[in-house]
């Protein structure tokens, strides 16, 4: 955002889309990227990329990832996995940062999105004040997360479960304090398969009017794509609002039990195979 040399990927990018007609969004961890890549998943990734290349050329499909991970982590996961092609865009840090991948493999920030961020009052000191009040006034203990890396516009914590009554009251208090400071706050049960602890909630503080769902609204409007031509895929509770912003929103077969209880559309297969089969239903070749 400040003129530094852009980060690059060793993966090749998808072809440019001249006139976007469809958009496909996918969560990263345990959706587009499996933390335990099997031989079957490697085959599915290759099949997905081959199919997506055809969709880009024949149907002007734009494809991107929306994730809680930071950009360094996204690049590392996709380059070290079995992926060969980088998506058109990466919305990282829980949908607070948006980058477009150019033909040279460089990640360029979306300036209009940057302008939106700079108008918010999100600061580390504001988040620190919320955490301090939670602990000193309400005896609600929060544990800072470190595995996703630091971000100027996203601060992550864990809240460890106590009992249903206490958790409900405490989560409501966390949301209230964030709202009073005009911050966004996402709270969802952790998914251990994505590297989180069991028996805990993810608590993410972000600027208002940002996040996974806001990214989808922003990109759909940017390219003037009709809702009926939008797809999204996820695996956990923090993807549900994102799925509600598209016409074709699916949880994958490997999604968390809690998330599946709250969403009707679920694929019959996990990971990229689940995504691929849904796309084949809508774009037969």
From TrEMBL:
Gene3D superfamilies: HAD superfamily/HAD-like, yhjk (haloacid dehalogenase-like hydrolase protein) domain. Keywords: Hydrolase. This is HAD-IIB family hydrolase. The keyword Transmembrane helix does not apply. GO terms for cellular component: cytosol. The keyword Transcription does not apply. It comes from the Bacteria. GO terms for molecular function: magnesium ion binding; phosphatase activity. Residues 21-278 form the Sucrose phosphatase-like domain. Coiled coil: none annotated.
């Amino acid at each position: 955002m400040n003129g530094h040399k852009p980060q690059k990927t060793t993966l090749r990018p998808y072809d440019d889309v001249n006139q976007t007609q469809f958009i496909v969004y996918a969560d990263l961890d345990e959706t587009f990227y499996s933390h335990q890549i099997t031989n079957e998943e490697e085959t599915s990734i290759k099949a997905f990329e081959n199919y997506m290349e055809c969709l880009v050329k024949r149907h002007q499909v734009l494809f991107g990832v929306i994730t809680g991970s930071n950009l360094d982590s996204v690049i590392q996961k996709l380059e070290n996995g079995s992926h060969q092609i980088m998506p058109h865009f990466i919305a990282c840090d829980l949908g607070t940062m948006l980058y477009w991948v150019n033909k040279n493999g460089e990640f360029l920030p979306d300036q209009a999105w940057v302008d939106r961020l700079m108008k918010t009052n999100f600061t580390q000191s504001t988040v620190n004040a919320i955490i301090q009040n939670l602990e000193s006034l309400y005896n609600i203990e929060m544990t800072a997360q470190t595995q996703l890396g630091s971000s100027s516009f996203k601060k992550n914590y864990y809240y460890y479960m106590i009992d249903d009554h206490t958790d409900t009251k405490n989560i409501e208090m966390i949301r209230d304090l964030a709202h009073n400071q005009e911050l966004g706050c996402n709270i969802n049960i952790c998914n251990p398969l994505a590297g989180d602890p069991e028996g805990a909630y993810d608590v993410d503080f972000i600027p208002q009017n940002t996040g996974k769902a806001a990214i989808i609204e922003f990109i759909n409007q940017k390219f003037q794509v009709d809702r009926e031509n939008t797809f999204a895929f996820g695996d956990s509770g923090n993807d549900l609002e994102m799925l509600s912003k598209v016409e074709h929103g699916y949880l994958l077969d490997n999604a968390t039990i809690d998330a599946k209880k709250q969403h009707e559309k679920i694929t019959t297969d996990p990971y990229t195979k689940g995504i691929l089969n849904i796309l084949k239903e809508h774009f037969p070749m």
